[in-house]
Amino acid sequence: MKVAVGSDHRGYQSKQRILKHLGERNHEVVDSGAMNEESIDYPDIAAKVCEEVAQGRADRGILICGTGLGMCIAANKFPGIRAAPAH
User: Fold this and answer.
1) Residues with Cβ < 8 Å from 73, sequence gap 6 or more?
2) Fewer CB near the last or first residue (10 Å), C or N of the chain?
3) Which residues, at least 6 apart from 80, have a Cβ–Cβ distance to it below 8 Å?
4) φ, ψ dihedrals at 50, nearest 5°
5) Residue 50 annotated to the active site
6) CA atoms within 13 A on the CB side of 64
7) What digits encode the pLDDT tens for the residues 41-73?
8) pLDDT tens per residue across span 7-42
9) DSSP assignment of the chain
């Protein structure tokens, strides 16, 4: 399975752990950012992940932010995308 993963700066460390976890299970991953812990706008990252999924370049997407809600709200604005917070 190909999975696009993106986070804001507050979710960067969690994203790194998820990328490692998916890679260890032989999933192909697309790292859509953030690339470090410097402040970044989460809607930009949500757009990148949603584009990967909507265009069929990824089977699934995982979005991570400080609360999980911002990314969810941003992702649900894209046609064909259904996002929900999961813990």
Assistant:
1) none
2) C
3) 54
4) -60, -40
5) no
6) 23
7) 999 999 999 999 999 999 999 999 988 899 999
8) 999 999 999 999 999 999 999 999 999 999 999 999
9) -EEEEEE-GGGHHHHHHHHHHHHHTT-EEEE-S--SSS---HHHHHHHHHHHHHTTS-SEEEEE-SSSHHHHHHHTTSTT-------
- 33 CB neighbour count, 10 Å cutoff: 18
Please check whether residue 9 is in contact with residue 37, taking contact to mean a CB–CB distance below 8 angstroms. Answer: yes
Phi/psi for 46 (5° steps) reads -60, -40
Catalytic residue among 65, 74, 75, 83: 65
